[in-house]
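Quick one, tokens below. Sequence please?
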């Protein structure tokens, strides 16, 4: 997505949890504890993946995208499909997305990623930015090169 920024990947934390499970520091009931609400969100709003569950290895994982932000009001905390996020990103200034992977078979769940979306990301790094005192931060050719590199 074009406005995605401030991405935090939680894969190291996931690896640590799985390592703790393999070394019997935690039990399967400690990590396979998906709530009924999370499982329903995965069924109805989740995005299926080709990745197998690291615990039961019999089901594919599902990604659930939760959205939070001041502008969302009553919609904050709701699960949304991936297709619903770009239109929201163009209409709202800024909101945060939390991506949770869920196994519907054994109830494994883990936060895997979080990031910001919204219109504020469109003007953040464009060539139209100016430095202190109104002097342009980049010349036109430099800004043109950046736009072409992003494509």
């Amino acid at each position: 997505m074009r406005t995605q920024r401030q991405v935090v990947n939680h894969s190291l934390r996931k690896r640590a949890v799985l390592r703790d499970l393999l070394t019997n520091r935690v039990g399967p009931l400690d990590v396979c504890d998906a709530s009924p609400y999370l499982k329903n969100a995965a069924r109805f709003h989740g995005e299926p993946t080709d990745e197998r569950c690291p615990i039961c290895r019999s089901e594919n994982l599902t990604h659930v995208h939760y959205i939070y932000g001041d502008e969302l009001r009553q919609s904050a905390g709701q699960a949304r499909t991936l297709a619903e996020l770009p239109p929201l990103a163009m209409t709202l200034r800024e909101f945060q997305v939390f991506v949770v992977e869920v196994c519907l078979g054994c109830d494994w769940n883990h936060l895997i990623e979080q990031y910001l979306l919204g219109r504020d990301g469109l003007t953040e790094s464009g060539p139209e930015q100016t430095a202190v005192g109104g002097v342009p931060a980049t010349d036109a050719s430099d800004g043109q090169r950046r736009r072409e590199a992003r494509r």
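The CA atoms of residues 19 and 129 lie 45 Å apart. The beta strands are 5-9, 47-52, 60-68, 79-80, 95-102, 109-117.
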